[in-house]
Amino acid sequence: MAKDAAAERMKRKDYEKELEKLQVELCHLQDYVRENKLRVIILFEGRDAAGKGGTIKAITEKVSPRVFRVVALPAPSDREKTQLFFQRYMERFPAGGEIVIFDRSWYNRAGVEYVMGFCTPAEHERFLNLCPQMEKYVIDGGIILIKIWLEVGMDEQERRFKARIDDPVRQWKLSPMDLESFRRWYDYSRARDLMLKKTSTKDAPWYIVRSDDKRRARLNCIAHLLGAIPYKRIKKDKIKLPNRSDKGRYNDQVSLKEMNFVAQRY
Question: Is residue 265 domain-resident?
């Protein structure tokens, strides 16, 4: 019997080979979005430790931050709590030629806020009812909206949390809220199911990516995005470096000798 693909982790060499191909295509997508003034929003939601940050990094590490803009909002301030709920998110929406990636989004209301009691049941119900209408308004306004849910299994989430506890360079990723979400696994499952049922619409469907294998999840996400945003390769003139001008030539290294340099420890 063939091994389950989900249980067979993708090798780093294979992952990096495929990732390089996809990142080249992301650069072509970037050119098309910029030239045609497209506006794109990509939402990443999912359980804690599902791999949102790593997936977003894989998408953005080879492209321009002026085109691919990542938004990861902190908890709302006292002032923001008095605004319309969607207001602080809409302030970050893309202009022409931009792709905005939300590392968590307005769907906080359907997840952590609801489970942890940071909003009332009435506010939660109102959000679920109004969210599809708001998203249709956004899409009708010409914005491409893509919603991704990363789903990590119970055992894999526990393994990742324990790895963070033991790794000093990853401990910052483990907040008290993460620990509480670990304890309330089934509460989050019910909140997830209700959210998907109410807000996965024809206009703005949710797409779920299993992320127990982070490498496969990242590649599948990028491939999905490339298929969800229509684009063509932009023909560009070959770039040629101009000749340097000798006008005003002088020894520009001598002028640095009296400056402070960082010690060369390596």
Answer: no
